Every structure is written in structure tokens, then in C-alpha cells.
């Protein structure tokens, strides 16, 4: 949080102090088709920037649509959104592309981030392993968010932790990537986890 002085009068009490919110960057990552674009769109207070392209026959041998057969578009660079958590904190959200051939962008998108959400889908758990490994190797704090929605398999958080082989020190939460409040709770958890990591390191 940064404070500045305003020349605007404030009932004769001198110059008024204004608060400029601090901004932080969070990455929304995960495999192909797990709901990253949906999450950014659900929680962003601005119209999100999207770089989606139609899936074509040329990609049939590359893009694995198992479990997401109805998917018609894919992110080829990033999704970008913004959410104000409170008057002192604004989050900038960067959603990664999911396909392996675009993973060279992940390092650039992760620069300057305080933490990340690794979004996983119970229909395609194996798609989450690469993202978990990416943030573990770079020491970036992350939260695993299991995208639960109507028609998906129902598992407990502990069952998911075992299946994904996620350490107890990594928060794992259940969420709905279509629901704003659910996504907001996940982002708050990322901030808390990142702050706790800083406290431990201090």
C-alpha cells in the first residue's frame, strides 16, 4: 500500500491522504481444458483479455480432447484479468496456455508472480502433474484447486492430495471455476500461502 497527499480540501483539516492500492500478480496454470480461461473470466472485474483460437483438424493428433470432447477453442498465449480484493490490494491474473507446445511461455508469465493456482480437473488428473512440477522446481508458492462441477466425480480433498501426490505443505482446495466467490476464495488462499512462506523464510 502506498500513501500520497492530495491537494483536495478535506473540511479544513489540511491535505487529504489517499491510498493507492498495491498490486500483485498471480498465475492461473494447469493442463489443457481444465478451466483456466473460465476461472479468469468468472472472477475478473474487467472484461478479460483472451487469446483463444479455434481447435482445427490440424491439431487432432496433438490436442488430447479426452474428457473435454465439447471443447472448441484453446488459449494460445495467455488470459488476463483483474480483481480488487479490498481497497488496498489489486490482483492481476495471468492464465497460462495448457498445451505442451505452448509451455515455453510459462517462464515469462511466472516472472514477478507472488504465487499460482494449479487448476486440475477430476476427469484428467494427469494433466495437472506438469504444472505442479513446474512450480515446485521454481520454488513458487502454489495452491492446487480442484475444479468441481456438475457431472464430475466427487472426491474429498485428501483423496485428491493422494492421487496428485501433493505435499501436506501445499494447500489443496475444492472450487467451481465458474463461480466468482469460489474463485475469489482460491485467490485469497494463494495470497495467504505466499505470505506464510515469506514469514517462514524471514
TrEMBL record:
Alphabetized UniProt keyword annotations: GTP-binding, Hydrolase, Nucleotide-binding, Receptor
Keyword Cell wall biogenesis/degradation applies: no
Recorded family membership: Belongs to the GPN-loop GTPase family.
Molecular-function GO terms, alphabetical: GTP binding; hydrolase activity
Protein name: Signal recognition particle receptor subunit beta, a GTPase
Domain of life: Bacteria
Taxonomic lineage from the root: Bacteria, Bacillati, Actinomycetota, Actinomycetes, Pseudonocardiales
Gene3D superfamilies, per the entry: P-loop containing nucleotide triphosphate hydrolases
Amino acid at each position: 500500500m502506498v500513501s500520497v497527499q492530495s491537494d483536495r480540501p478535506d473540511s479544513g483539516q489540511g491535505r487529504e491522504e489517499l491510498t493507492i492500492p498495491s498490486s500483485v500478480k498471480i498465475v492461473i496454470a494447469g493442463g489443457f481444458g481444465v478451466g483456466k480461461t473460465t476461472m479468469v473470466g468468472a472472477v475478473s472485474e474487467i472484461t478479460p483479455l483472451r487469446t483463444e483460437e479455434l481447435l482445427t483438424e490440424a491439431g487432432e493428433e496433438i490436442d488430447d480432447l479426452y474428457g473435454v470432447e465439447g471443447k472448441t477453442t484453446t488459449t494460445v498465449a495467455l488470459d488476463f484479468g483483474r480483481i480488487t480484493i479490498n481497497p488496498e490490494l489489486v490482483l492481476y491474473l495471468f492464465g497460462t496456455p495448457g498445451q505442451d507446445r505452448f509451455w515455453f511461455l510459462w517462464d515469462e508469465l511466472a516472472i514477478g508472480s507472488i504465487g499460482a493456482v494449479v487448476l486440475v480437473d477430476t476427469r484428467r488428473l494427469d494433466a495437472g502433474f506438469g504444472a505442479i512440477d513446474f512450480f515446485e522446481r521454481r520454488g513458487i508458492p502454489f495452491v492446487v484447486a480442484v475444479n468441481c462441477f456438475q457431472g464430475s466425480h466427487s472426491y474429498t480433498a485428501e483423496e485428491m492430495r493422494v492421487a496428485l501426490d501433493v505435499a501436506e505443505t501445499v494447500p489443496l482446495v475444492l472450487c467451481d471455476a465458474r463461480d466468482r466467490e469460489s474463485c475469489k476464495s482460491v485467490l485469497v488462499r494463494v495470497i495467504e500461502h505466499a505470505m506464510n512462506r515469506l514469514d517462514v523464510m524471514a
